[in-house]
Specification:
The complex is a heterodimer of chains A (290) and B (278). By secondary structure, chain A is mainly α. Chain A has 13 helices and no strands. Chain A has one domain: ABC transporter involved in vitamin B12 uptake, BtuC (Orthogonal Bundle). The radius of gyration of chain A is 19 Å and the shape is globular. With 278 residues, chain B is mainly α. Chain B has a domain of 191 residues: ABC transporter involved in vitamin B12 uptake, BtuC (Orthogonal Bundle), CATH 1.10.3470.10. Helix content of chain B is 80%, strand content 0%. Chain B has twelve helices and no strands. In chain B, α6 runs antiparallel to α9. The chains are: A mainly alpha (290), B mainly alpha (278). Chains A and B meet through α2, α4, α5, α10 and α12 of A and α2, α4, α5, α8 and α9 of B.
């Protein structure tokens, strides 16, 4: 298994996607921006479809669409959680429409109907090795940005008024975070497919935040959990070529998602944390002005 | 300008089905937006895709697969969501369904084309036999919302007041998600999961950005959904471009127009009424 070129590339890209998603995922879960993370991944498919149409490497299409959408979401930008979700939803709805058009035009010209499927669900074994340096560079930039801004990100998420009082721009921090999120999500969209990259973004981070309350430790736990799930998933997918029904393997994305979910459910088996998780009423109360 | 052929023969089914879908999407979407459940509105139709893939693997009617998985997702999001972070549970439910969907598709090995039509819809292929089924399920979904209209509105707009009056906020949440799941399972084969989501969120968000009055916003939401769908069908018929493109972009444009209208009204010195949910 380890002598096959595509498999080694898959392990490498999977590792990058899993660790970067794990790190940034902790912040997106703390900031309750899972929906934005998932939407950016879906929107990246629009870019992927567009790139497929003009014959450019999909990675660039993913990246450009993700960044554009992040800007649009923050431009509509509403600070209350409910309204923010709606702004996200509107951008997502528009982008999916454009994706439908790109895919339609793409299949018109090339009659490759499988394209929509591989864009959505990804195919880690067919990533072009020459994309790897670009993927690594983008991942490093995104994680470095988040690391530098980590205190601001937490502060603006937990106590926006306090952040404003200290002269931190909540809006600017939000835009930078969404941009970094878009980059990371594009990476994992290439790796395990746009739709399922949400699994690596949300699952390990949510697991980590149940295991530890310290953001620093949570980042570490999250990255390690994501990495373990991805590598095990790739190995299982490789092995599954010998499983029934014979002839073709089970998808990597299925294994990764299953492992991530098992990790999350296992975190429930631990003793409850000192502080109870927040109830929806508390969140609702937080969203409405006193 | 438009060909009159688009109103004849097979297209009649398309117009009827799309009109029913638009009314339902406009209504359920209004509550989804009011309750801040845009993510669930995205996750339930998309996740239902796994049910369709599973049903086709087992050789069962796709609608049953869609309904079972959509309702299971709704119950999962509703039940777990109150214990943990709501968005995390929604995301993980969605991801689980999509992972299963990918597995089913890979096992059956012949489903990619159908997957495309479930995501993007096949409104131009609605048969006469489909129309009564869609109509019945549509009436059911509307009845589901109509019967619980007041508690739904109350728990959406003022959860504290609802709680004080003895209405279970959590119960209504699960109830609403199940109604949305029912609406989903019948509309997804017609318009596709992605388009359904656009149709639920775009018009409803636009309506809410135009007016703060709940009743008026609900009517506007349905009206904008209808206009979007009718225009989209006509444009799609003329250009041969996918319906999903026109619906998705149309919904977003209506929302932007609503924001712009509100911005202009605000600049003109008009005092904007604050919605109770704000």
């Amino acid at each position: 298994m380890l002598t096959s070129g595509p498999v080694l590339t898959a392990f490498l890209i999977g590792a990058i996607a899993a660790t970067t998603s794990g790190v940034i995922g902790v912040f997106s879960v703390l900031r309750t921006q899972s929906f934005a993370g998932h939407s950016l991944a879906d929107i990246a498919t629009t870019g992927g479809a567009g790139a497929f149409l003009v014959g450019v490497n999909q990675f660039w299409g993913f990246l450009v669409a993700g960044l554009a959408a992040a800007t649009a979401m923050e431009a509509i930008g509403v600070q209350r959680r409910r309204d923010r979700d709606i702004a996200t939803g509107v951008v997502l709805g528009g982008a999916l429409g454009i994706a439908a058009l790109f895919l339609y035009l793409g299949t018109q010209h090339t009659s490759r109907t499988g394209a929509s499927f591989s864009i959505l669900f990804g195919s880690i074994f067919v990533v072009a090795p020459d994309t790897v340096p670009a993927i690594i560079a983008a991942g490093v930039v995104a994680v470095a940005t988040v690391a530098v801004l980590s205190r601001r990100l937490l502060l603006t998420a937990v106590a926006p008024e306090l952040a404003r009082a200290r002269g931190v721009s909540v809006r600017l921090t939000g835009i930078i975070f969404l941009a970094a999120l878009a980059v990371v999500v594009s990476l994992s969209a290439v790796a395990i497919g746009a739709v399922l990259s949400t699994a690596l973004l949300v699952g390990p981070a949510a697991t980590a935040l149940r295991v530890t309350r310290s953001p620093g430790k949570a980042v570490l736990v999250s990255a390690v959990t994501g990495l373990a799930a991805t590598w095990t998933g790739i190995a299982l997918a490789y092995e599954s070529y010998y499983w029934p029904p014979a002839g073709h393997g089970w998808p990597v994305s299925f294994f990764v998602v299953a492992l991530v979910l098992v990790a999350y459910l296992l975190s429930y088996a631990r003793k409850p944390r000192r502080m109870p998780p927040r109830s929806p009423h508390e969140e609702a109360a937080e969203c409405s002005p006193a | 300008m438009f060909s009159s052929l688009m109103f004849t023969g097979l297209m009649a089914n398309t117009w009827i089905a799309a009109t029913i879908v638009a009314v339902i999407a406009g209504m359920t979407g209004f509550f989804a937006v009011l309750r801040g459940e845009a993510f669930a509105a995205h996750a339930i139709p998309n996740g239902a895709f796994a049910g369709a893939a599973g049903a086709s693997l087992l050789g069962v009617n796709v609608i049953w697969g869609l309904a079972v998985v959509a309702i299971a997702s709704a119950l999962g999001i509703g039940a777990l969501g109150s214990k943990a972070r709501h968005d995390v549970v929604t995301a993980l439910t969605l991801v689980l369904m999509l992972g299963l969907g990918a597995l089913f598709v890979s096992i059956s090995n012949q489903y990619a084309q159908q997957a495309y039509s479930l995501l993007f819809g096949e409104v131009f292929g609605v048969s006469s036999a489909d129309v009564p089924l869609i109509a019945v399920l549509g009436v059911l979904a509307l009845a589901g919302i109509g019967l619980a209209f007041r508690p739904l509105m109350l728990t959406s707009a003022m959860p504290e007041v609802a709680e004080a009056r003895g209405v279970s906020v959590r119960g209504m949440e699960i109830y609403f998600l199940v109604v949305m799941a029912l609406a989903t399972s019948m509309t997804v084969p017609v318009v596709g999961a992605l388009l359904l989501f656009s149709l639920m969120i775009g018009p409803a968000a636009a309506a809410r950005s135009i007016t703060a009055r709940p009743g008026l916003a609900l009517a506007l939401s349905v009206a904008i959904a209808l206009i979007t769908v009718w225009l989209s069908i006509a444009l799609s018929y003329q250009t041969n471009w996918p319906l999903g493109f026109f619906v998705g972009v149309g919904g977003a444009l209506f929302y932007l127009a609503g924001l712009a209208a509100r911005g202009l009204a605000g600049l003109g010195g008009g005092t904007r009424r604050v919605h109770p949910a704000a």
